[in-house]
Specification:
Length: 254
């Protein structure tokens, strides 16, 4: 179930993020908001300009106040240039009106009003939504995928061992609570080549184990060649599907 949730939330985050990445920069950002204001402040040339419009943006509110877009015109190389500048420095522009004289800094066909700080709506906030989905989906996906990959590797390359059952119990795991599926927890140990008992625990949904196995019984397990602390049960259904002989002591994988 965690795998399904992980896939859904991860896919949903990508489904939301990719369109936002393509659409938002063009849809919500005006050309004058992309200017290199640091470069303009450092290298800009003073120009005289006149205010041509003042527009309050009511759909954006910061601390109860709205940003103002100031339209202005100036001459550059004998040509009249119209541009805009958005700011939240409301105290500094109280006396501005259409026709007011202002100073602008011009650098490489970009300009800003001198003495004011530019305001750009933080469109990055929209990216938080897919990040939240990804923040839940990716860990959920990995929590299900990593154990599944380990089990797959054991199925493919594991060494067959006989293990002794310590206990078999019914458990309601977090995954089981979500999926309403009961799980069986099997505690067991096997003896390695050096005569040491290696203890482990496995979870399965095979309810027949409750009926067929009890403490002291022998079960077949796969053990990792590289790490004997990694092992898993050999499920009867998987053995049947792959024609594994689980009736003999020396189980073989065909």
């Amino acid at each position: 179930m965690f795998a399904i949730l992980g896939i859904v939330f991860t896919a949903l985050s990508l489904f939301v993020f990719i369109p936002l990445l393509i659409i938002l920069p063009n849809a919500l950002t005006h050309p004058y908001q992309k200017y290199d204001f640091k470069g303009i402040e450092k290298n800009g040339i003073d120009k005289a300009a006149k205010v041509t419009s003042l527009q309050e943006i009511y759909n954006v509110t910061v601390n109860g106040q709205h940003p103002i877009i100031i339209g202005y015109e100036y001459e550059n190389n004998g040509q009249s240039v119209s541009d805009k500048f958005e700011t939240m420095d409301l105290d500094k522009i109280n006396n501005l009106a259409v026709g007011s004289d202002i100073k602008v800094l011009v650098y490489e066909k970009q300009a800003m009003i001198k003495g004011l700080t530019s305001f750009t709506f933080p469109i990055q906030l929209f990216y938080l939504f897919p990040v939240l989905f990804l923040g839940f989906g990716l860990p959920a996906l990995l929590s299900a995928l990593i154990p599944a990959l380990k089990t797959f590797t054991l199925y493919k390359n594991g060494i067959v061992k006989e293990a002794h059952v310590i206990s078999v119990s019914l458990s309601q795991s977090p995954i089981g609570i979500i999926s309403n599926q009961q799980k069986i927890v099997v505690n067991y140990y096997f003896i390695n080549d050096y005569g040491t008992n290696i203890y482990s625990e496995a979870t399965t949904s095979d309810l027949l184990i409750l009926k067929d196995k009890k403490a002291g019984d022998i079960i077949k397990i796969f053990v990792s060649e590289k790490d004997e602390n990694q092992s898993c049960l050999i499920p009867a259904l998987e053995a049947m599907k792959n024609n594994w002989d689980i009736s003999s002591v020396n189980l073989t994988k065909n």
